Amino acid sequence: MTVPGRRSSTFTRLLRHGFTDPSAAERLLDLDELAPLRGDSVLLDALGATADPDLALRGLVRLVEAQPEAERSALTTTLLSAKPFRDRLLGVLGTSEALGDHLARHPRDWQALVTYEAADLHPGVAEFEQGLAGADDPVALRVAYRRCLLSIAARDVCGTTDVTQTAAELADLATATLRAALRIARAAAPEDAGQCRLAVIAMGKCGGNELNYVSDVDVIFVGEAAEGSDEAKALQAATRLASHLMRICSETTVEGSIWPVDANLRPEGRNGPLVRTLSSHLAYYQRWAKTWEFQALLKARPVAGDAELGAAYVEAVSPLVWQAAERENFVADVQKMRRRVVDNIPAAQVDRELKLGPGGLRDVEFAVQLLQLVHGRSDATLHSGTTLDALAALAAGGYVGRADAAQLDEAYRFLRAMEHRIQLHRLRRTHLVPEGEEDLRRLGRSLGLRTDPVAELGREWRRHAAVVRRLHEKIFYRPLLDAVAQLAPGEIRLSPEAAGQRLEALGYADPAAALRHLEALSSGVSRKAAIQRTLLPVLLGWFADSADPDAGLLGFRKVSDALGKTPWYLRLLRDEGAAAENLARVLSAGRLAPDLLLRAPEAVAILGDPEGLGPRGRDHLEQEVLAAVGRAEGAEQAVAAARGVRRRELFRTAAADLIGSYGTEDSPRESDPGALVDRVGQAVTDLNAATIAGALRAAVRAEWGEELPTRFAVIGMGRFGGHELGYGSDADVLFVHEPREGVDEQEAAKAANRVVTEMRRLLQLPTADPPLLIDADLRPEGKSGPLVRTLKSYEAYYRRWSLVWESQALLRAEPMAGDPELGARFVGLIDPLRYPAEGLGEDAVREIRRLKARMETERLPRGADPTLHAKLGRGGLSDVEWTVQLLQMRHGWSEPGLRTTRTRAALAAAHAAGLIAADEAQTLDEAWVLATRVRNAVMLVRGRPGDTFPSEPRELAAVGRYLGYGPGRVGELVDDYRRVTRRARAVMEELFYGA
């Protein structure tokens, strides 16, 4: 008798055996149906050994209750007397609720678990065909299929088979099921069966003998006419048979479905015919197939129907698979495929994805398949459709390091075992790790983690996923280093030919040079070489991710040669997580940033500082530049220091722009391209303003000491005044001065002119630093007018002679350096010109329109495509800016928000004031941002300014990558540019020309 308030001894024993609801379990054990089992301690031990003792007990009760009265004792007696059967049955019931449901519906199927013969341990297709032999309709086939599945699951959960054997058995059962389904379809349509030969080719995991418990079964159908039959009619008959086979397996009946049969890997996918002849398949693969289709054909295996036709299909397509790496677009396709489908996983599920997430099953499978495609053309030992067999062959051939292969093998087995057990629970197709405590506990226990199943499972999963993440890229590149290294006796290395093949497949245009760089960087026994050997496998992957891997590797060698003896350089790349990836992105994205870095390689330290890529404000820059100028001994040395700061800051800006545009493993690419454009424009404007301020201070100090005889200001114009400078922009300026009290006007004018001349000379001196070109052509009277004027002279000119285009140019005027009070007075002088009271008159509007039309016909370079010229082309910068500037001149007097030098800010203000509709403002803004980014991209990639897309394919691909277009998507980039600018031109014509 149990004392009130005290637990029964059974309750305590149940807790100790892993039951989470001992009270419910105690009630179930007290049922009359379990009376023969109740006193047997062996049963409790067996239940406690299952993944979920509560679930196992509930399933057992349902099974016993479902037995016919006369047969119940046979089950209970066998359960008590036969340990292998007891472990199998309870193991399944404690892991799979779905198979427990099946046993409750078909209570005699427990007998499928009784046999324990040697042949039963590893059945093949023949045994499964025998198990399905009596099934003559879809419902019977489902019941027989689940009965076979029951035995597979039993061997799996008891550890009789490992994960690869289980996957192979599932593929064999799928093969037998497809054959049975085809048998049923043929029996239903004997005329169709007589007209054609039909072969079923398994693809994907079924073709690779590595199927999941619940998965689409991918197939391709090949048909030929039977002797004496018409081909067209035979193909129609074969299509009907194939369609019926798919329905037999896929449709839901009272017994559910088996699995979907998916034929979308066929030529042309779901848009192509379901069944083709062998010659039609070959014609498609020879002319139209994409690289991913040859990757899919790695796993092609004939499984049902006409065996001779199936074998002929595989024999015919196999050579094409192993020639895929020689195809023209192979590298671009590989780069595209290497971008995992993580982007398509809902954000809430990324961390739970076993298959597609970072460090998931797909990473291993893809890496293995890619290496097979690259090296299988010259090594037939790699021709396996099974992932782990292929991985072992790659290791045996030296294509993957043995230790790396062993770690990947272990991780893949663990992840596949997790996937199997998750699917087995409810027999549902999923790759998501469950979130509930109960589900995680059952999953952990099913994998043998018993002390703290939930915590242990989390740790093991993270450990194996981290191994895959680390090795997924490394296995491509580590053997390349071994190919140029001194290896221990007995170690296998890639041959130079195999290393070259792999580098070519990864996008390196000059594999021989790449191998020389690798040898130079990693050879020797020094600490430097050892660190390089650790860094290079990862860096090579990042270089291969770019449009120009060769340039990235060459740049890295040059930087390493320059900094290799400085102790902090390699330590920075090794220890600062982001520094190495940031450097790889910067070195392989184009010419400008590497050129800036190689002129002063120590700037690489910027890439490892978490705050290093943030722009420095103008005040900070000006303070640094003026301090450097103050320390210098002469004007040339002073401006050299200022230009050195500018070069460093240009590198910082370019690096931040590239990293924001490409994204890294730890931070996604910037989603707002307008924000990138604004940051670049502001940063380049600030550093140019600070550099000009430094040049002004140096020029004054060299001749006049601390003070010039005249007050002097530099007014930014054009993109400089608009804070919209690109990397290759000149600095458009006006110079204004005002004689100090008591100074003769002629003396003041001479001093001002000498300062301007000296500033321009100093900023353009030939040095290692990029020059800063000052352009004063927007001054009154243009090139014919004086370089510098007094404030009164500007006032007199603008009052008497100013033309409407000059007022328009003054919309961008903003003081940038020199005397701030004089600059402010200049702005006060020009405001009535650029924002005329009551707006522009009709004559002035007509004149602006006439000037714009003339510019469109006269200034576009000869031969340039007007749809692709970023500055002067249709819907480009000029169209948007002139539209916005006309709005400013017409309405700036009454709308304060329009009184800005910045195009995007003025456009937003025009929308806020109701002068332009939201969709029109959006269209113009999108076009302006895109055109600006194209110009920035061209400068970053080519190292010199340009307004049109490059014609050289690699450069064009690099521009595309900067703009967010992956490998092989350059055509989309050009189409999108034309579409965006065409829409902007339509808006411009309505708003500007009044069309």
Largest sheet: 5 strands, mixed
Structural class: mainly alpha
Give the strand tally: 10
Strand content: 5-15%
Query: Termini, distance in Å?
Result: 99 Å
Q: What spatial form do the alpha-carbon principal axes imply?
A: elongated
Number of DSSP helical runs = 45
Q: Give the % helix.
A: 55-70%
Radius of gyration: 37 Å
- Mean of the pLDDT scores? 91
Flag low-confidence runs: 1-6
Summarize the structure.
It contains 45 helices and ten strands.
Molecular structure report:
The protein has about 1000 residues and is mostly helical. The chain has 45 helices and 10 strands. The strands form 2 sheets. Strands 1, 2, 3, 4 and 5 form a 5-stranded mixed beta sheet that branches. Strands 6, 7, 8, 9 and 10 form a 5-stranded mixed beta sheet that branches. Strand 2 (about 215-225), helix 15 (about 230-250) and strand 3 (about 260) form a beta-alpha-beta unit. Helix 22 (about 400-425) runs antiparallel to helix 24 and helix 24 (about 455-485) packs across helix 25 (about 495-505). The N and C termini lie far apart (about 100 Å). The model is unreliable at about 1-5 (pLDDT under 50).
